[in-house]
Amino acid sequence: MKTLIKTSNEVRFSETLFRGKFLSFCLFLILFTGTVSAEPLSNFAFYNLKEERIILSSSLSDLSEKDVLILNFTGSTCRPCKEQVPILLDLTKRTNLSLAGKGKVLLWVVFVGDDFRTGKEYSEFLKLQNAAEVLVDPLSSSYSQVKIVGLPTVLILNSKQEILFKSEGFQESSTAALKRFLNSLGK
Q1: pTM (predicted TM-score)
Q2: 3-state SS track over 135-148
Q3: Which H or E run contains 153?
Q4: What is the pairing mode between strands 45-48 and 105-112?
Q5: Would you state the pLDDT for residue 17?
Q6: Cβ atoms of 34 and 170 closer than 8 Å
């Protein structure tokens, strides 16, 4: 039976190598938090507040190549969601003003697990009328179809159903990443 004995130099080298790889991995996560490179999204449907079925792929095919859709998954019982929605409304408005004809940003707010009545109430509470398309996902099918872990979740999609940006949760870093992405549109 062989016994391996590491010298102190070998141990230090192993620790340094591990630390270097770990720091590189952490830097990768920090730099790319909130971005996803053109990942395709499977098709699914929501319901608007008139209880009409809205098919995602049909709506996205109506967009021009320069347009994007912010898809915000939220919930009536989610406090961070209620804080994030006004920020998304403001970012959408500011981005559309800065694009000035070079494309547009649409905002859909999807109430996951909420019924139509609750969706209408929170649409009024959050002042979403005429500012965003309000949809409901009463059966919470978004969790499996979009592979979201929790609320709030923000996706930015193009006309080809590709996910250009994704963030889960509501933190300063994800909001900053979203602002950077929206600022990059039209450049």
Answers
A1: 0.78
A2: EEECCCCHHHHHHC
A3: strand 153-157
A4: unpaired
A5: 40
A6: no
Instruction: Extract the tokens encoding 61.
Output: 């095919």
Please report, as a single letter, which amino acid is at residue 93. K
92 contacts 117 by C-beta, under 8 angstroms: no
User: Which of 124, 122, 140, 130 has the alpha carbon at shortest distance from 47?
Assistant: 140
Contact assessment for residue 186 and residue 98, using Cβ atoms and an 8 Å cutoff: yes
- Token look-up 């697990």 returns 113
Burial of 5 (0-12, 13-18, 19+ CB in 10 A): exposed
56 in Cβ contact with 161 (< 8 Å)? yes
Q: What are phi and psi of 48, to 5 degrees?
A: -80, 180
Whether 140 contacts 121, CB under 8 Å:
no
Interaxial angle between packed helices 172-184 and 79-99, expressed in degrees from 0 to 180 and rounded to the nearest 10 = 20
Please provide the DSSP assignment of 167-183 as one string.
EES--HHHHHHHHHHHH
Taking residues 154-163, report their average pLDDT: 94
Paired tokens of 33: 């938090």
Q: Answer whether residue 34 shows pLDDT above 80.
A: no
Q: Is the dihedral of CA 183, 34, 125, 51 positive or negative?
A: positive
- pLDDT, position 146: 84
Amino acid at 91: L
Report the candidate in 132, 127, 149 with the shortest Cα–Cα distance to residue 140.
149
Residue 154 is encoded by which pair of tokens?
Answer: 């923000």
